[in-house]
Every structure is written in structure tokens, then in C-alpha cells.
Design a protein that fits this description.
290 residues; mainly alpha; two-stranded antiparallel ribbon; 12 helices; elongated
Amino acid sequence: AVSTGWTFEVQLALMVMASSGGDDDSTYAQLSATVNGLSDMGPSSSGATASRIQAVDPEEMISKAQVHKEKGNELYKLKKYKGAIGQYHRALLYLKTLHQSGAGSAALAVQQLAAFSGAEETSTTTEQDAIIAELEANCYNNLAACLLQEPEVKYAKVSSYCAQVLERKPGNSKALYRYGLALYHSKDYDGALGKLHQALQQSPSDPNVKRYIKLTQEALSRQVQRQKALYKGMFDSSTPASGDAQVGTGAAGGEKQQADSVVADAEEDDRKEEGDRNVTDSNGNNNADA
């Protein structure tokens, strides 16, 4: 693979961002500010600045990414999740220097900086590409694991990180499980069931996957019951067309009460469901990847 290398200024911007440990949006803001600052200096392809242009060393970037990922793993084990998140983001940013294209606002800012710098191109071997993909998958998986430990989980972001993992490692059981869990708590029960069944194929004996499949199936059943009850309630509450029809009012009223009871039971089940949000897996599903 071929990617754009970095000037001294771009490398400095990388260091500035790495010190923040921010998310993808804050990364973009900081790197964009650097772009604006560099634009006042003129093209880096002229004068003394040109002598600073050089391609990055892929091995160095990979090595630095591995160091930050390992630091993140240590912090995760200590339950210092915020610090771990920062380390995983730093690792990913080093790896972004080896991508000319990529997803996310940070990747866009990286491309803008590289384009402005006129930097040399950096080539990576097939073996290095495989290592980069593995590292990125592990970092995104670990970011999802960290977010699942927060008091208020951002399930949309968990889903996004798991999707990044599955782009690189389609059969990763942890990512499939976490994706399914996130979709379940986002009330996308059909999507959750699909991911969880895929996870079960990869880890047939995983009790947590089986548990969430059961929870999801129950949630889907409640959803169907709720819809039936609501529709039945709407029809039963319609005004009778004639006096003769009033004879059945008592029965219809009883059916409406029964429908209301089904809805109430479903709502109570939903409240109980909230207790599952902070489940800590006992079988390693929430352990940091190597």
C-alpha cells in the first residue's frame, strides 16, 4: 500500500493531538487548526521547508501504535477507562499516518495536512498492511469495550467501533457480541438478533451471547404483544354504530382492560431491561484484545 508521508509540521500536529486523548471530532478540530496555521506559511515544497519533507517509517509508526495500545490495555485492566480510551485513540492516529484514505473526520484532517505538506509517499508491505489491520481492529474493539463500562453508554458509538472491527475482521466474536448488545439496548432487536446469532456461530458455548439472544427474543415478543394490544385497543374503543351494538360494550371494555394490561406488563419488562445495561461479562467478552 502507498500512503502520503509527513512533514515536520504535520508530525508536530500528530503529537499535539496525541497529548489530548480526544475523540475523532476533537482530533479533526485540532488538526484542522494546524492546517490553517500552515496555510499562512505557503507551500512546503519551496525553500527551507522542502528539506524537511520526508516519508514516514512504517515500522516506527507501527511500533509507536503498539506501545500506546499496550498502555491502553494496562489502563483497562486497572479500570481506568478514560485513560485507556486516550491511548487507543493515539495508537489509531499513528496508524492513520499510513493511510492515504480513511473514514472519519480525523482521517479527513490527516489527508488535508498531508496534501498541503507535499510529503513523499510511503510504501507498506503486504505483511505490514496485515499488522496495521490487526492493530486497528484490536484498538476499535477495545474502545467499544471501554465505552460499555461507562455509566452512560453511548451505544451508537459502540456500534460504530464494532463495525470498524468487522470491516477488518468479519468473524470477530467479541465485536459481533458487543455490536449485538449495543443494538439490543438501542432497541434495534432485529439487528441485534442477527449479530448475536453470528456471534454464537463463532462462540457456540458463550453463555453471555446465549443470554442476550434470549433477552432479544423476549423483547421482540413483547414488542409484538404491545403492537397487537395497541391495535386491539384502538378498534375496541371505537363508538358502536347502533343501539344493538351496545349489548357487547361490557365485553369490549373487558378486552380493552386486558389489552391495557398487556401494554403495562410490556412497559414493566422494559424497565427491568434497564438493569441489564451495565452487565460485566464473566467470560472475557469485555477483556481488552491483545
